[in-house]
């Protein structure tokens, strides 16, 4: 009996050891599975699988300012693509306020959208918001203004520097490379405004008999109006103006009317006007012979491409380029009625 009890004790100890070993292995497997699941969930947010689609995705867009025709067109075209691909899009207007946009982005991220379409007020100040979205696993699809510290999935923008260069060369040729030119500048710190200003002033250095007077109007027509009035008081040899958007030329035209200096192309004393965007109002001024040229920035294409890439991302296709710059194109009296120009597309919609 004593020998049997010893054998029984040995068997019992062996059984307990096996049970403990199995329990440890099970616990280890459970922990590995939990870690794998957590990692998978994290990756799913930033790296969509082939099984995912754009259907029923909830996305948000934060746009620099819907008070501008350009941004309205960009928003409309992006919404059309979102609807086409089954995405629910919520739009937020930053109203040219970088601090307001930062707060909006914080609130957007808290709602955990599947992606964000972003047009930044300030390409540098938006960086903390982009980093916060990255940390939350929410991809950023940038349009128009490029986030300067990166962190975005893809960007569709515009060759702003080249637009500035083209404006300088056009004005210099039109006025015989002589005289003072007003630069109606966009908001300092806004990526597009800074690059357009750099391109314009760098190109103007080629013309030693021309002087540039910069007016900081922050994209706003009312500021362009008052600053242009002041500039004509201070300078008597103004021959042209470059506006970083077509909207500010509305203020310039009002100022010239007040000064009795608004002349059409070909009339003595005409002030050469070059704008950027190709807005419906800008195109109408070109038809009237008041504005010489607008450098088209295709808002329709920009919004479309940004949202199409978002849909591709959700469908597991990341074959789009990281960065895309749309080329500026001259709109003048010869092609102003082209129905494919976004300004004409928007004008036609407004008439319906």
Q: Which key features would you list for this structure?
A:
352 residues; alpha/beta; Rossmann fold; 2 domains; six-stranded parallel sheet; six-stranded mixed sheet; 12 strands; elongated; disordered N terminus
What does this structure look like?
The chain is α/β, with parallel strands linked by helices and 352 residues long. The protein has two domains: 58-157 and 299-326, Rossmann fold, CATH 3.40.50.2300; 160-296, Response regulator (Rossmann fold). Helix content is 50%, strand content 18%. The chain has eleven helices and twelve strands. The chain has a six-stranded parallel beta sheet with strand order 2-1-3-4-5-11, with helices on both faces. The protein has a six-stranded mixed beta sheet with strand order 7-6-8-9-10-12, sandwiched between helices. Helix 3 (98-110) packs parallel to helix 4 and helix 9 packs across helix 11 (342-351). It is elongated and about 65 Å long.
């Amino acid at each position: 009996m004593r020998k049997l009890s010893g054998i029984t004790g040995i068997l019992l100890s062996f059984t307990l050891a096996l049970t403990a070993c199995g329990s440890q292995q099970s616990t280890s497997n459970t922990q590995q599975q939990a870690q794998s699941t957590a990692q998978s969930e994290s990756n799913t947010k930033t790296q969509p699988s082939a099984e995912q689609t754009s259907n029923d995705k909830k996305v948000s867009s934060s746009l620099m300012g819907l008070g501008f025709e350009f941004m309205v067109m960009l928003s409309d075209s992006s919404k059309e693509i979102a609807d086409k691909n089954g995405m629910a899009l919520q739009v937020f207007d930053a109203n040219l306020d970088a601090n307001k946009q930062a707060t909006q982005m914080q609130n957007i991220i808290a709602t955990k959208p599947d992606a964000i379409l972003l047009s930044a007020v300030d390409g540098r100040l938006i960086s903390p918001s982009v980093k916060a979205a990255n940390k939350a696993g929410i991809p950023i699809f940038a349009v128009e203004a490029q986030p300067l510290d990166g962190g975005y999935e893809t960007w569709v923008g515009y060759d702003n520097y080249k637009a500035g260069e083209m404006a300088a060369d056009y004005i210099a040729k039109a006025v015989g490379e002589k005289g003072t030119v007003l630069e109606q500048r966009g908001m300092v710190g806004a990526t597009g405004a800074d690059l357009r200003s750099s391109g314009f002033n760098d190109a103007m250095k080629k013309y030693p008999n021309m002087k540039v007077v910069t007016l900081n109007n922050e994209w706003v027509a009312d500021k362009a109006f008052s600053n242009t009035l002041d500039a004509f008081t201070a300078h008597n040899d103004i021959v042209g103006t470059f506006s970083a958007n077509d909207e500010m030329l509305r203020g310039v035209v009002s100022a010239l009317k007040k000064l009795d200096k608004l002349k059409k192309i070909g009339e003595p004393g005409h002030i050469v006007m070059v704008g950027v965007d190709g807005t419906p109002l800008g195109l109408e001024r070109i038809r009237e012979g008041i504005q010489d040229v607008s450098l088209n920035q295709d808002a329709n294409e920009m919004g479309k491409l940004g949202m199409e890439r978002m849909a591709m991302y959700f469908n597991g296709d990341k074959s789009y380029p990281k960065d895309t710059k749309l080329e500026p194109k001259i709109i003048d009296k010869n092609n102003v009625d082209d129905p494919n120009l976004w300004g004409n597309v928007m004008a036609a919609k407004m008439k319906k």
